[in-house]
Specification:
It is a single chain. This protein is an alpha/beta fold and about 375 residues long. It is built from 14 helices and 17 strands. α4 packs parallel to α6 and α8 packs antiparallel against α9.
Length: about 375
Protein backbone atom coordinates (compact mmCIF):
# COMPACT_ATOMS: atom_id res chain seq x y z
CA UNK A 1 0.00 0.00 0.00
CA UNK A 2 3.10 2.22 0.09
CA UNK A 3 1.60 3.92 3.16
CA UNK A 4 3.90 2.04 5.51
CA UNK A 5 6.78 3.72 3.77
CA UNK A 6 5.54 7.14 4.80
CA UNK A 7 6.91 6.24 8.23
CA UNK A 8 10.40 6.40 6.71
CA UNK A 9 9.69 9.04 4.07
CA UNK A 10 12.29 11.44 5.40
CA UNK A 11 14.91 8.76 4.85
CA UNK A 12 13.72 7.80 1.40
CA UNK A 13 12.94 11.32 0.22
CA UNK A 14 15.53 13.85 1.42
CA UNK A 15 14.27 16.60 -0.87
CA UNK A 16 11.54 18.26 1.16
CA UNK A 17 10.67 20.77 -1.56
CA UNK A 18 10.06 18.34 -4.42
CA UNK A 19 6.95 20.16 -5.48
CA UNK A 20 8.91 23.36 -5.97
CA UNK A 21 11.63 21.46 -7.80
CA UNK A 22 9.12 19.95 -10.16
CA UNK A 23 7.67 23.26 -11.18
CA UNK A 24 11.06 24.91 -11.39
CA UNK A 25 11.89 22.35 -14.04
CA UNK A 26 9.11 23.75 -16.19
CA UNK A 27 10.76 27.17 -16.19
CA UNK A 28 14.45 26.36 -15.95
CA UNK A 29 14.39 23.90 -18.83
CA UNK A 30 12.25 26.12 -21.06
CA UNK A 31 9.71 23.40 -21.53
CA UNK A 32 7.51 23.45 -24.59
CA UNK A 33 3.90 23.35 -23.44
CA UNK A 34 0.83 22.88 -25.58
CA UNK A 35 -2.35 23.85 -23.77
CA UNK A 36 -4.95 21.10 -24.15
CA UNK A 37 -3.46 19.95 -27.45
CA UNK A 38 -5.49 17.18 -29.04
CA UNK A 39 -3.56 16.77 -32.28
CA UNK A 40 -2.85 13.11 -32.93
CA UNK A 41 0.81 12.22 -33.31
CA UNK A 42 2.36 9.75 -35.77
CA UNK A 43 2.26 6.08 -34.85
CA UNK A 44 5.04 5.31 -32.40
CA UNK A 45 6.70 1.99 -31.66
CA UNK A 46 5.28 2.01 -28.14
CA UNK A 47 3.24 4.31 -25.92
CA UNK A 48 3.60 3.85 -22.18
CA UNK A 49 1.09 5.57 -19.89
CA UNK A 50 1.99 6.10 -16.24
CA UNK A 51 -1.22 6.74 -14.32
CA UNK A 52 -0.32 8.54 -11.09
CA UNK A 53 -3.30 8.68 -8.72
CA UNK A 54 -1.42 10.89 -6.26
CA UNK A 55 -4.18 13.00 -4.73
CA UNK A 56 -3.08 11.59 -1.37
CA UNK A 57 -0.06 11.46 0.94
CA UNK A 58 2.21 10.11 -1.85
CA UNK A 59 2.20 13.32 -3.89
CA UNK A 60 5.81 14.25 -3.06
CA UNK A 61 6.94 10.88 -4.36
CA UNK A 62 5.04 11.55 -7.60
CA UNK A 63 7.09 14.70 -8.21
CA UNK A 64 10.30 12.86 -7.40
CA UNK A 65 9.46 10.08 -9.85
CA UNK A 66 8.72 12.55 -12.63
CA UNK A 67 12.08 14.13 -11.87
CA UNK A 68 13.64 10.69 -12.41
CA UNK A 69 11.76 10.21 -15.69
CA UNK A 70 13.08 13.53 -16.98
CA UNK A 71 16.62 12.22 -16.52
CA UNK A 72 15.92 9.03 -18.49
CA UNK A 73 16.88 8.42 -22.11
CA UNK A 74 13.67 8.46 -24.18
CA UNK A 75 13.99 7.60 -27.89
CA UNK A 76 12.00 9.81 -30.26
CA UNK A 77 10.01 6.91 -31.68
CA UNK A 78 8.52 6.11 -28.26
CA UNK A 79 5.97 7.96 -26.12
CA UNK A 80 6.17 8.26 -22.33
CA UNK A 81 2.91 9.81 -21.12
CA UNK A 82 2.09 10.67 -17.51
CA UNK A 83 -1.30 11.40 -16.00
CA UNK A 84 -0.77 13.04 -12.61
CA UNK A 85 -3.32 14.14 -10.04
CA UNK A 86 -2.08 15.67 -6.77
CA UNK A 87 -3.70 17.65 -3.92
CA UNK A 88 -2.14 20.90 -5.15
CA UNK A 89 -3.26 21.12 -8.75
CA UNK A 90 -5.82 19.86 -11.23
CA UNK A 91 -4.90 16.65 -13.07
CA UNK A 92 -2.58 16.98 -16.06
CA UNK A 93 -1.64 14.76 -18.97
CA UNK A 94 2.07 15.19 -19.73
CA UNK A 95 4.44 13.93 -22.40
CA UNK A 96 7.85 13.31 -20.87
CA UNK A 97 10.99 13.80 -22.92
CA UNK A 98 14.65 13.95 -21.98
CA UNK A 99 14.78 17.04 -19.73
CA UNK A 100 11.49 18.34 -21.13
CA UNK A 101 7.74 18.12 -20.56
CA UNK A 102 4.86 18.90 -22.91
CA UNK A 103 1.52 19.58 -21.20
CA UNK A 104 -1.02 17.78 -23.36
CA UNK A 105 -4.18 18.21 -21.31
CA UNK A 106 -5.34 19.94 -18.15
CA UNK A 107 -8.48 18.49 -16.58
CA UNK A 108 -11.04 19.79 -14.17
CA UNK A 109 -11.01 18.35 -10.66
CA UNK A 110 -11.94 14.67 -10.88
CA UNK A 111 -11.76 11.43 -8.92
CA UNK A 112 -8.71 9.63 -10.28
CA UNK A 113 -9.65 6.52 -8.28
CA UNK A 114 -12.75 5.95 -10.39
CA UNK A 115 -12.95 3.51 -13.27
CA UNK A 116 -14.63 6.12 -15.46
CA UNK A 117 -11.70 8.53 -15.15
CA UNK A 118 -9.07 5.82 -15.57
CA UNK A 119 -10.80 4.46 -18.68
CA UNK A 120 -11.21 7.95 -20.18
CA UNK A 121 -7.53 8.80 -19.61
CA UNK A 122 -6.34 5.51 -21.11
CA UNK A 123 -8.62 5.86 -24.13
CA UNK A 124 -7.63 9.48 -24.71
CA UNK A 125 -3.92 8.77 -24.34
CA UNK A 126 -3.90 5.84 -26.72
CA UNK A 127 -5.97 7.82 -29.20
CA UNK A 128 -3.67 10.86 -29.10
CA UNK A 129 -0.51 8.77 -29.13
CA UNK A 130 -1.16 5.73 -31.33
CA UNK A 131 1.52 3.06 -31.30
CA UNK A 132 2.31 -0.44 -32.40
CA UNK A 133 2.32 -1.55 -28.76
CA UNK A 134 1.10 -0.21 -25.43
CA UNK A 135 2.10 -0.47 -21.80
CA UNK A 136 0.52 0.79 -18.58
CA UNK A 137 2.07 1.64 -15.21
CA UNK A 138 -0.40 2.06 -12.35
CA UNK A 139 1.05 4.29 -9.63
CA UNK A 140 -0.64 4.87 -6.27
CA UNK A 141 -1.58 3.19 -3.03
CA UNK A 142 -2.64 -0.42 -3.24
CA UNK A 143 -3.86 -3.26 -1.09
CA UNK A 144 -4.45 -6.15 -3.43
CA UNK A 145 -8.03 -7.15 -4.07
CA UNK A 146 -9.52 -5.75 -0.86
CA UNK A 147 -12.76 -3.87 -1.49
CA UNK A 148 -13.30 -0.18 -0.85
CA UNK A 149 -13.86 0.48 2.82
CA UNK A 150 -12.62 -2.95 3.88
CA UNK A 151 -11.22 -1.46 7.07
CA UNK A 152 -14.81 -0.96 8.27
CA UNK A 153 -15.04 -4.74 8.45
CA UNK A 154 -11.62 -5.73 9.70
CA UNK A 155 -10.95 -2.77 11.99
CA UNK A 156 -7.77 -1.81 10.13
CA UNK A 157 -6.55 1.47 8.68
CA UNK A 158 -4.88 2.28 5.38
CA UNK A 159 -6.63 -0.58 3.61
CA UNK A 160 -7.57 -0.07 0.00
CA UNK A 161 -7.45 -1.64 -3.41
CA UNK A 162 -5.62 0.10 -6.27
CA UNK A 163 -5.59 3.88 -6.14
CA UNK A 164 -6.61 6.53 -3.65
CA UNK A 165 -8.04 9.95 -4.37
CA UNK A 166 -8.74 11.67 -1.05
CA UNK A 167 -11.16 9.15 0.50
CA UNK A 168 -12.08 7.42 -2.76
CA UNK A 169 -10.74 4.01 -3.75
CA UNK A 170 -10.98 1.75 -6.80
CA UNK A 171 -11.95 -1.88 -6.48
CA UNK A 172 -10.17 -4.50 -8.56
CA UNK A 173 -13.29 -5.44 -10.52
CA UNK A 174 -13.65 -1.79 -11.53
CA UNK A 175 -9.96 -1.60 -12.39
CA UNK A 176 -10.32 -4.58 -14.71
CA UNK A 177 -13.31 -3.00 -16.44
CA UNK A 178 -11.39 0.23 -17.08
CA UNK A 179 -8.29 -1.35 -18.63
CA UNK A 180 -8.36 -2.38 -22.32
CA UNK A 181 -7.13 -5.74 -23.53
CA UNK A 182 -4.02 -6.47 -25.59
CA UNK A 183 -1.54 -4.41 -23.59
CA UNK A 184 2.05 -5.57 -23.69
CA UNK A 185 2.44 -5.12 -19.97
CA UNK A 186 0.98 -3.70 -16.78
CA UNK A 187 3.34 -2.61 -13.99
CA UNK A 188 2.06 -1.80 -10.52
CA UNK A 189 4.03 0.80 -8.60
CA UNK A 190 1.79 0.07 -5.64
CA UNK A 191 1.72 -2.32 -2.70
CA UNK A 192 0.55 -5.92 -2.61
CA UNK A 193 -0.66 -6.10 -6.21
CA UNK A 194 1.02 -9.40 -7.13
CA UNK A 195 -1.81 -11.27 -5.44
CA UNK A 196 -3.43 -14.15 -7.28
CA UNK A 197 -6.83 -12.45 -7.05
CA UNK A 198 -5.56 -9.29 -8.78
CA UNK A 199 -3.45 -11.10 -11.36
CA UNK A 200 -6.30 -13.39 -12.32
CA UNK A 201 -8.82 -10.55 -12.59
CA UNK A 202 -6.44 -8.82 -15.06
CA UNK A 203 -5.34 -11.97 -16.91
CA UNK A 204 -6.86 -10.88 -20.23
CA UNK A 205 -5.57 -7.32 -20.10
CA UNK A 206 -1.82 -7.74 -20.72
CA UNK A 207 0.70 -10.42 -21.61
CA UNK A 208 2.91 -9.54 -18.65
CA UNK A 209 2.20 -8.12 -15.20
CA UNK A 210 5.04 -6.88 -12.99
CA UNK A 211 4.12 -6.29 -9.36
CA UNK A 212 5.18 -6.84 -5.78
CA UNK A 213 3.54 -9.41 -3.48
CA UNK A 214 4.68 -7.30 -0.50
CA UNK A 215 4.32 -3.62 0.20
CA UNK A 216 6.41 -1.12 -1.78
CA UNK A 217 8.52 1.55 -0.12
CA UNK A 218 7.77 5.16 -0.93
CA UNK A 219 10.73 5.32 -3.34
CA UNK A 220 8.87 3.02 -5.74
CA UNK A 221 10.53 2.09 -9.03
CA UNK A 222 13.85 3.67 -10.11
CA UNK A 223 12.40 5.34 -13.20
CA UNK A 224 15.59 6.78 -14.61
CA UNK A 225 16.83 3.21 -15.00
CA UNK A 226 13.66 1.34 -15.98
CA UNK A 227 12.19 3.80 -18.51
CA UNK A 228 14.86 3.07 -21.16
CA UNK A 229 14.30 -0.67 -20.59
CA UNK A 230 10.59 -0.27 -21.30
CA UNK A 231 11.07 1.85 -24.42
CA UNK A 232 12.63 -0.84 -26.60
CA UNK A 233 11.15 -3.09 -29.31
CA UNK A 234 11.14 -6.14 -27.03
CA UNK A 235 11.49 -5.23 -23.35
CA UNK A 236 13.38 -7.70 -21.18
CA UNK A 237 10.94 -7.88 -18.28
CA UNK A 238 13.33 -9.92 -16.18
CA UNK A 239 15.92 -7.17 -16.54
CA UNK A 240 13.36 -4.59 -15.44
CA UNK A 241 12.55 -6.60 -12.33
CA UNK A 242 16.25 -7.23 -11.68
CA UNK A 243 16.91 -3.48 -11.87
CA UNK A 244 14.16 -2.90 -9.32
CA UNK A 245 15.60 -5.47 -6.92
CA UNK A 246 19.18 -4.25 -7.30
CA UNK A 247 18.00 -0.77 -6.35
CA UNK A 248 16.56 -2.05 -3.07
CA UNK A 249 19.32 -4.54 -2.30
CA UNK A 250 21.84 -1.70 -2.57
CA UNK A 251 20.06 0.43 0.03
CA UNK A 252 20.98 0.48 3.69
CA UNK A 253 19.34 -0.82 6.85
CA UNK A 254 15.59 -1.29 6.89
CA UNK A 255 15.31 0.41 3.49
CA UNK A 256 16.79 -2.74 1.98
CA UNK A 257 13.24 -4.06 1.65
CA UNK A 258 11.43 -5.21 -1.45
CA UNK A 259 10.06 -7.97 -3.63
CA UNK A 260 9.04 -8.29 -7.28
CA UNK A 261 7.52 -10.81 -9.66
CA UNK A 262 7.09 -10.99 -13.43
CA UNK A 263 3.94 -12.94 -14.29
CA UNK A 264 3.01 -14.54 -17.61
CA UNK A 265 -0.75 -14.03 -17.61
CA UNK A 266 -1.28 -16.78 -20.21
CA UNK A 267 -0.37 -19.30 -17.51
CA UNK A 268 -2.94 -18.09 -14.98
CA UNK A 269 -5.93 -20.01 -16.29
CA UNK A 270 -4.03 -23.34 -16.35
CA UNK A 271 -3.02 -22.56 -12.76
CA UNK A 272 -6.64 -21.92 -11.79
CA UNK A 273 -7.67 -25.23 -13.39
CA UNK A 274 -5.10 -27.11 -11.29
CA UNK A 275 -6.23 -25.35 -8.11
CA UNK A 276 -9.84 -26.21 -8.89
CA UNK A 277 -8.91 -29.87 -9.47
CA UNK A 278 -6.90 -30.05 -6.26
CA UNK A 279 -9.69 -28.50 -4.20
CA UNK A 280 -12.29 -30.90 -5.57
CA UNK A 281 -10.13 -33.85 -4.56
CA UNK A 282 -9.77 -32.63 -0.98
CA UNK A 283 -12.36 -34.08 1.36
CA UNK A 284 -12.36 -31.00 3.56
CA UNK A 285 -10.10 -28.11 2.60
CA UNK A 286 -8.45 -26.74 5.73
CA UNK A 287 -7.65 -23.09 6.32
CA UNK A 288 -4.15 -23.34 7.79
CA UNK A 289 -2.92 -21.52 10.83
CA UNK A 290 -1.93 -18.22 9.23
CA UNK A 291 1.03 -17.82 11.55
CA UNK A 292 2.61 -20.84 9.85
CA UNK A 293 2.34 -19.38 6.33
CA UNK A 294 4.85 -16.88 4.91
CA UNK A 295 3.32 -13.45 5.39
CA UNK A 296 3.59 -10.56 2.94
CA UNK A 297 2.14 -7.49 4.69
CA UNK A 298 2.96 -5.53 7.82
CA UNK A 299 -0.45 -5.17 9.43
CA UNK A 300 -1.58 -7.27 12.37
CA UNK A 301 -3.01 -9.72 11.82
CA UNK A 302 -1.48 -10.26 8.38
CA UNK A 303 -3.92 -10.50 5.48
CA UNK A 304 -1.69 -11.56 2.57
CA UNK A 305 0.44 -14.69 2.36
CA UNK A 306 2.64 -16.65 -0.03
CA UNK A 307 0.45 -18.53 -2.51
CA UNK A 308 2.61 -21.63 -2.86
CA UNK A 309 3.25 -21.90 0.89
CA UNK A 310 -0.49 -21.66 1.50
CA UNK A 311 -1.17 -24.49 -0.96
CA UNK A 312 1.39 -26.67 0.80
CA UNK A 313 -0.57 -26.29 4.02
CA UNK A 314 -4.01 -26.65 2.45
CA UNK A 315 -3.54 -29.43 -0.16
CA UNK A 316 -2.76 -32.93 1.08
CA UNK A 317 -2.38 -34.73 -2.26
CA UNK A 318 1.34 -34.72 -3.10
CA UNK A 319 0.79 -35.29 -6.83
CA UNK A 320 -1.46 -32.25 -6.99
CA UNK A 321 1.11 -30.19 -5.09
CA UNK A 322 3.86 -31.19 -7.52
CA UNK A 323 1.67 -30.16 -10.46
CA UNK A 324 0.82 -26.86 -8.77
CA UNK A 325 4.46 -26.04 -8.03
CA UNK A 326 5.39 -26.76 -11.64
CA UNK A 327 2.62 -24.53 -12.96
CA UNK A 328 3.55 -21.70 -10.58
CA UNK A 329 7.12 -21.85 -11.92
CA UNK A 330 5.71 -21.43 -15.45
CA UNK A 331 3.48 -18.55 -14.37
CA UNK A 332 6.13 -16.58 -12.48
CA UNK A 333 8.99 -16.08 -14.93
CA UNK A 334 11.06 -13.90 -12.58
CA UNK A 335 10.90 -13.59 -8.82
CA UNK A 336 13.17 -12.07 -6.18
CA UNK A 337 12.98 -10.61 -2.68
CA UNK A 338 15.01 -9.25 0.20
CA UNK A 339 15.45 -11.36 3.37
CA UNK A 340 13.53 -8.86 5.50
CA UNK A 341 10.84 -6.25 5.00
CA UNK A 342 11.65 -3.18 7.08
CA UNK A 343 11.92 -4.49 10.64
CA UNK A 344 8.45 -6.03 10.48
CA UNK A 345 9.00 -9.61 9.26
CA UNK A 346 11.43 -11.89 7.50
CA UNK A 347 10.87 -13.29 4.01
CA UNK A 348 12.14 -16.84 4.14
CA UNK A 349 10.52 -17.89 0.88
CA UNK A 350 8.46 -16.41 -1.94
CA UNK A 351 6.86 -17.78 -5.08
CA UNK A 352 6.17 -14.20 -6.22
CA UNK A 353 2.40 -14.46 -5.83
CA UNK A 354 0.38 -13.63 -2.75
CA UNK A 355 -3.05 -14.74 -1.63
CA UNK A 356 -5.74 -13.66 0.77
CA UNK A 357 -6.87 -16.77 2.66
CA UNK A 358 -10.68 -16.85 2.84
CA UNK A 359 -12.17 -18.77 5.73
CA UNK A 360 -15.45 -19.72 7.36
CA UNK A 361 -17.47 -16.72 8.60
CA UNK A 362 -15.05 -14.33 6.87
CA UNK A 363 -16.78 -10.94 6.83
CA UNK A 364 -15.12 -10.19 3.47
CA UNK A 365 -16.09 -13.45 1.83
CA UNK A 366 -19.07 -12.02 -0.05
CA UNK A 367 -16.78 -9.56 -1.80
CA UNK A 368 -14.21 -12.31 -2.36
CA UNK A 369 -16.84 -14.50 -4.00
CA UNK A 370 -17.38 -11.85 -6.69
CA UNK A 371 -13.81 -12.20 -7.99
CA UNK A 372 -13.03 -14.32 -11.04
CA UNK A 373 -10.44 -16.24 -9.03
CA UNK A 374 -13.04 -17.57 -6.61
CA UNK A 375 -15.58 -18.20 -9.35
CA UNK A 376 -13.13 -20.32 -11.37
CA UNK A 377 -11.41 -22.16 -8.52
CA UNK A 378 -14.03 -22.39 -5.78
CA UNK A 379 -11.25 -21.60 -3.31
CA UNK A 380 -12.76 -21.53 0.16
CA UNK A 381 -11.48 -22.95 3.43
CA UNK A 382 -14.25 -25.05 4.92
CA UNK A 383 -12.85 -24.94 8.43
CA UNK A 384 -10.01 -23.46 10.42
CA UNK A 385 -7.05 -25.57 11.40
CA UNK A 386 -6.75 -26.21 15.15
Amino acid sequence: MRAIAILVSQLTNPRSELKKLFFLLFTALCLSCSNNSTEQEPTAKRTVLIYMAADNNLHRSAYKDIDEMLAAEIPNEYNLIVYIDTPYDNPHLLKIKKNAIDTIMQYDVQNSASKQVLKAVIDETFSLFPAENYGLILWSHGTGWLPEGAYDYIKETNVRSFGRDKNNEMEITDLAEAIPENLDFIIFDACLMSGIEVLYQLRNKADIIIASPTEVLVAGFPYEEIVPLLLTPRPNYGEIALTYMEYYKNRNGILQSGSIAVVDTRQLEPLADLVNKAIKEEENLVCPNRELVQRYDTREPALFFDFENYLEHAISNEANLIALRKQISKTVIYNDWTPYFLDEFSIERSCGIGIYIPFENDVLFHQYSLLDWHKDTGLFCARLAP
